[in-house]
Structure formats: C-alpha cells, structure tokens
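Researcher: I'm comparing several assemblies side by side, and this is the next one on my list. It has 465 residues spread over two chains. Same procedure as the others: predict the full complex and return the structure.
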Amino acid sequence: MKLEARELVCDYGATRAVDSVDLAAAGGSILAVFGPNGAGKTTLLRMLSGERKPDRGAVRLDGRPVSGSDPAWRSRVGLISHRTGLYRKLTVGENLAFFATLHGVAGQGAAAARALDGVGAGELEGKAVEQLSRGQRQRVALARSLVHDPDIVFLDEPFTGLDPGGAEALEAMLRACREAGKIVVLVTHDLRRGVELADRVAVLRRGRKVLDGSASEHGAQDLLRFFTAGGGAGGEGAAA
Amino acid sequence: MTSLRWVGVIAHKDLRIEFRAGGRVVAMIALAVLACFLFAFALDRSQVSAQHVAASLTWLTVLFAATAGAGRAFDTEEEDGAFRHLLLTPIPRHAIFLGKTAANLVLIWMVTLLTFIALTTFLGLRDPGSLTHHGAIFLPGTIGLAATGTFFGLVSRHSSLGDTILPALTFPLLVPVIFFGATASARVFMERPWPEISGSVRLLWAFAVGFTAVGSVLFRYVAEE
C-alpha cells in the first residue's frame, strides 16, 4: 500500500498555501511533516485526506487517484486533530458507537469498547465527554478515529494539550498502527517526538517542501535548520 | 445501511444532544411563548377579531422561533470540530442534511404545537377549527421552514456575519410558505371547507419538497471546502 501526492497545489485567493509538493508514504510506516506556522502543513494534510480538493496535482493510493467525495476512500481514512471532534453532551460510548455506525462497523458497541481498550480508556465508556480532561478527550478521539480500523491515519497536531501520559499512549498507538501495516501521516510542531516516531520526515516552508528524507538521517536539530529562512537552501529533495 | 437509516442516526444523535443540553429548545420555546404573550397584549380585540389574525400571528411566531433554532443547528458540530469528522464518514452528504433537517423539524413541531395552544389560549379562541386541517397545513409548511433553516444555518456559519445574516437569507425565500400557510390556516380558523384550503396546501407541499430537494443537492457544496 502506497500513498503518493504529486505536484499538489492549493491556493487561498491570491495566497499559495501549498506549492507543487510531492510526497510518498508506504504502508507500515510513519511520515512526519514539519514546518513553522503558516507553512501549509494542515492544508497539505487536508488534501491528502481528501477533505480539500487540490487546485492542481493529485493524490493516489496504489496508483489510483483518490477523492474525498468517494465514500470508499473515506471509509479507509482515520483523522486525529488537536480538536477532538467529539460531541460533549454524549457519553464516550455513544460518541464511538455513533461514528462506528456511520462507518458501517458491525456490532458498534463492541467495536467502541475494543477501540477504547486499545487506547487504555475502557473505564471512560459511560462518562459524558464534557466531564473528561483534555488528555482523556484526546485518547477518546484517538479511539474514535480508529474504531473503523482505517488503513490510513492522518494526524494534525495530535500532541497539542496532551499530558506526558497521553502523549506516550498516542505514541504507542501510532507504533501499533505502523506494525499493523497502516500508513500514518503526522503533521506536528513537536520535532523531537516526530523524529523519534517517524520513518520519513518532510519539512514545509511557505508552502514548499524544503526537505524530504529518512528520519534516521535527520535529527531534530538538523530539521530545525530547515524551519528558518535560508536554512533549507539546497535542501529541496535533500534525500530520496 | 440505507440513506434513510443514516438520516435516522443523525437525527437521533442531534435530538439526544438537544434534549440533554436544552439550550436551543428552551430558547425557541421561550421566544415563541413570549411572542404569543406580547401579541395577545398588543392586539386591540375590540377592533380586530382574534379569529382573523390568529393564523398570521401563529406563522410569524413559528417563523421567528424556527429561525432562532436554525442559527444554532450547527453549534454542537462546531464546538469541538465534530463536523470535520462527520464529513469524513462514508455516508452521503444529503443524509447529513436530511438528518439535521429532521431533528430541526421535530423541534419546530414542538414549538408550533406550543404556539398554537398559547395563542388560542391568550386570544381566547374557543373554536380554532379542524385540528386535522391545521395539522395538514403545518406539516408541509414546517418541512419547508426546517429545510431552509438547516441549509442556511450552515451557510451563515461560513459567513463572517454569522447568525445575524440568517434572517436576511431565509425570510425572502420563505415568503411563499408564510403567505400560503397563513392564508390556509386563516381559512381553517374561519371554518371554511377543505376545497378552499387544499390548493394552498398543495403549494406548501411543492415548496417543502422543492426546498428539501435543493438543500439535499447543494448541501455538499456548502459543507465541503
């Protein structure tokens, strides 16, 4: 399984948010995309997940173009963002069962319980989301994103607001996803965690990709250089 | 799973949240009761017969309450970004629209029933005419209100003016619904025979089906980036 983006372009009016970005991520690997604020990371993620149609370029899975309007594609995608995407007035179990139902998961109650156990939040099932701490909510959001067992998991700043325990649980879950052969695409500011987790890293600056390479070749300090103006000079396509 | 089942799942979720939170329902009901109360005081019944104005006042009250409710129809979707995840599920966009419209409709029916009872009580109308005929008029009328309110509730969310733009967007479109609804209801209050009413009801159904169909088709363009 291979997810590829070719020449992705996205414009917001006169502003080019993403400019001719190529990326690839293989099954059983984690791709981390870094970049300063406004670099175009979230826009790139939205195009990869199909939430936003690129103005130019295409996203392909195993060579076939993917589209956010295709229900089959959406059923293969899981998304985790810094906003939990949960309904506060519903219980944790109701939230998960709701999304499991919409994804056509059989036995949604059992699937919800399984997903919660998977992120170490089984005891939260009967609690209302509004009663949970930020870290607990993020764990539940993680369970919600995995309740339909997606092949591709997109994460948009998932560590924001997480306590150390929550961040460790998230890291463990992402490693488990990698071992299960899923494609994981992570957008984050957290260089240290991102580099530790990822197999491949990419850096965006002002909408352009200034680095794409193996995580083992680039430490956090190395990547930091590419954040700053001029640091990425010559970094385009720095690695295969 | 069929689209109809998805519509039910979305509507059930929305109503469960509404009845637990209470904010939107309470606001709609409070607005309706207050409007009925003020209308009853403002009306000089020695000059104007209650039977002649009850229909217009009922429809206006329902319109204001429905618009107030529609402005908050997407609050729960937006507060923690759930709408983004809802759009990433494989269900068709029109099922989301119809589910949210159905939930809106249930709330509007509650407000309509309460408005009807409050106005007939405050105005001292002992014989409001056939309740079946009233129901046959309000059913298509409220479907039109719910579909229009749900669609433009989301449109207004994407506008920098927010909910304040909602009446300006919906009221012009709803003129026919209010006109034919109030006309038909007035005839029921005056106990006119059904053949004098059925033409307006047919037009109300045409608007209800039209608004719902157009909303279903266009919703995806408003919901997606």
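Model: For your comparison table: Chain A touches chain B through 32 residues (CB under 8 Å).
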